[in-house]
Each structure stands twice: as structure tokens, then as C-alpha cells.
Write a structure and sequence with these properties.
This protein is an alpha/beta fold. It has a single domain (3-241), classed as Spore Coat Polysaccharide Biosynthesis Protein SpsA, Chain A (Alpha-Beta Complex). The protein has 10 helices and 13 strands. It has helices at residues 34-44, 78-83, 86-89, 105-112, 126-133, 177-190, 192-197, 200-209, 229-238, 241-244; strands at 3-8, 28-29, 32-33, 49-54, 66-69, 94-98, 101-102, 118-123, 144-146, 152-155, 168-175, 215-218, 224-225. The strands form 4 sheets. It has a 7-stranded mixed sheet with strand order 5-4-1-6-11-8-12. Strand 2 and strand 3 form a beta hairpin. Helix 1 crosses helix 4 (105-112).
């Protein structure tokens, strides 16, 4: 595994003033941008070639990475941003990371070792974090169930009970070229307008409905997703620098 792609085209409007002049992944946790945490974890897992899909405030990025562009980031969703990196996804196994999360090199390494066309990282102990992020964890958490083979069975649906949730998807995926071919074929059948509206969790649901196996890999060590400024404040409080630094 030598390649990884960070999807950083969207603005992240729920971040308010933190993204008024800069991309969402420039928000800082313990003095480092989320982007810096991501690059550190990916490099720490031995990934040598790093790419990033730009959109909102793309001119802010000056790291020595391979850049892809989603010029229609305002009119499209995450899956359109993913498609911008087709040239890499079609030729070599790639880790794909959202730009508003942080995670460990160990999580990346474990996901890299999963032998499947498509695999996702998840947190089986999600409730401890969600209960600190939300007054009602079920207001945000979505379904996540595994099948008898340990692959993903359901994802992204609203739940009435914590018992329906075996984990939470992190925004960290792995595609092989063969797995990506299956994804691309499904997207071609949908048409451009439908693809523009498609978020990643909805894509995963469609792939499950089409019969594609989706493997899972549990998180290793601390992680977090940043949907709002309040999330950053929480992580500063509950995750000291020593706990998340490599």
C-alpha cells in the first residue's frame, strides 16, 4: 500500500468562522491542522504517495502532494470528489480519508492489511465518544451492523435503539483497483445528477444493495471527527496531546 487520497473539496459550513477563509482541514487540534494529523498518520503507516482533492479555497494548499480538483464542489457531494481521484483509484490500492477526521497510523496500517476490494474503518466502541459529543447520541448516530461473515450488513439508517448499532463509520476507506471498478460501474448506471447528490454513506448502502461485500477494520487508538467547533473544544479537553501524538 503506497497511496492515500484525502478528500478536502468541501467547505464544512457547520464549522462557521473556522472555515470562512480556509479549508475545513486547516482547523487546529493541539496546534496542528487536521491535515497535519492526517498526513502524519498516513506517513506513519508507510504510505509514500499522498494525494488530495481540492475544491473550496484550493489555493491554500501548498504541501508537496499530488493534487486532484473538484471544480464543482459547491454543486456536488463527497462521491463526486472521490471520482476526481479516479486515475489513482483505478491503478493501485488506495486509502481514502475524509479531511475532517484524525486517527492513528495503527488504524491506517490495519485497514491497509484487509484483503478486500472495499474496506472501511469503524469504531466498535463508538458510544463512549458519541455520548460526549451529543446530548442524545441517537440523534446523530446511524445504523451499523455486521453480517455472519463479519462484513458490513447495514449502514446509515436512523435507529431507535443503541442495540441496532455495532459501531460507527469513521470516514476512512480502502479501495483496490478491482473494488473501485465495481464502484465506478455502479456510479455510471446512476447518471451525473444522482452522483452529484450522493454522499459516501449512501454510496456504501447502494453497494450493499448491489451485493458488493464491504469488509471492516476496527479503529486502533484515538480518533475523532470534526463536524463543528464544539467538537474541537471537546477533543482538546478529553484527548491530551500525548494521547494522540504518534
Amino acid at each position: 500500500m503506497t497511496r492515500a487520497i484525502i478528500l478536502a473539496a468541501g467547505r464544512g459550513s457547520r464549522m462557521g468562522e473556522l472555515t470562512a477563509e480556509q479549508p475545513k482541514c486547516f482547523a487546529r487540534l493541539h496546534g496542528r491542522r487536521l491535515l497535519d494529523w492526517q498526513l502524519g498518520a498516513l506517513r506513519g503507516a508507510g504510505i509514500e504517495r499522498l494525494g488530495l482533492v481540492r475544491g473550496y479555497r484550493g489555493e491554500c494548499f501548498d504541501e508537496p502532494l499530488t493534487y486532484f480538483e473538484n471544480p464543482r464542489w459547491q454543486q456536488s457531494n463527497m462521491v463526486r470528489t472521490l471520482l476526481a481521484a479516479d486515475a489513482w483509484l483505478a491503478t493501485e490500492a488506495c486509502i481514502v480519508s475524509y479531511s475532517d477526521i484524525f486517527y492513528s497510523a495503527a488504524t491506517v496500517a490495519a485497514l491497509s492489511r484487509v484483503e478486500a476490494g472495499l474496506a472501511i474503518a469503524y469504531d466498535p466502541h463508538w458510544y463512549a465518544l458519541w455520548s460526549q459529543r451529543f446530548a442524545d447520541p441517537l440523534a446523530d448516530a446511524e445504523s451499523f451492523r455486521l453480517d455472519a461473515n463479519g462484513n458490513l450488513a447495514t449502514i446509515g439508517e436512523r435507529c431507535q435503539s443503541v442495540a441496532e448499532i455495532e459501531g460507527q463509520y469513521m470516514g476512512l476507506l480502502k479501495f483496490t483497483p478491482g473494488g473501485w471498478t465495481q464502484v465506478r460501474e455502479l456510479l455510471q448506471r446512476l447518471g451525473d445528477d444522482a452522483v452529484d447528490r450522493l454522499d459516501m454513506t449512501s454510496l456504501l448502502r447502494l453497494l450493499l444493495q448491489a451485493g458488493m461485500p464491504i469488509a471492516v477494520s476496527p479503529v486502533q487508538g484515538p480518533w475523532g471527527e470534526v463536524d463543528a467547533a464544539d467538537d474541537l473544544a471537546l477533543y482538546h479537553r478529553i484527548m491530551p496531546l500525548a494521547a494522540i501524538a504518534p
